Amino acid sequence: MQYFYQNHNSSDLIVFFAGWGCDYNQFVNLHDKLDVLILFDYQNLELDFDFSRYHNVYILAYSAGIFLSCLLSDKIPNVRKKIALCGNPYLFDVILGLNAQKLEILKNINLDNYLDFRRQYMTFSDEEFEQYNKLQSLRSIESCANELAYLQKLYDENKDNISPKFDKAFAAKNDLLFDINAQKDFYQNKLTIIANARHHIFFRFNSFEEMI
Description:
Blueprint: E1 2-6, E2 12-17, E3 35-40, E4 56-62, H1 64-72, E5 79-85, H2 100-107, H3 114-122, H4 126-134, H5 141-158, E6 168-172, H6 180-187, E7 191-194
Parallel strand pairs: 2-3, 2-4, 4-5, 5-6, 6-7
Antiparallel strand pairs: 1-3
């Protein structure tokens, strides 16, 4: 696991569990006054960070990061709120998460088709697509493939021991990866639906704090 840390000398911290294939570069358009710790590239569960100075910690978890946050929340003290973005803890469940067809799409992303994937699944408009490409992940295809294999293994080992408690959730109405109706059933009245949006919802916010 890798992390990117923004220190604004705040006594509060946002811990953001990024999604599969992500890195910190995709979220530099968000500007916060609170300190922010961005976790990404999940190929182990090592979390070596000193949380001792923070009185209030807010967990934001996106896509595959929602599952990871459920495994690591007990290592993070003083958590005041947990918020899920575009997905749920049951990452590879055929109804709630990624079914076999969606998983096959992710496994087959390569240098010839990754732009098509971004336009169809990640962004709602041509303008968003242009912005997304400017803030693209700097990770390699190989790194993302290794991460996906690790996530599958980790999920198989832990799917029966997930604590799926979240205080709030957001979902994109036009998400083609995670079924919107399944997210409605899962989160009930905790869910806020973002209209005219695909899986990458972060151009609809100016900061992580807005999501809290």
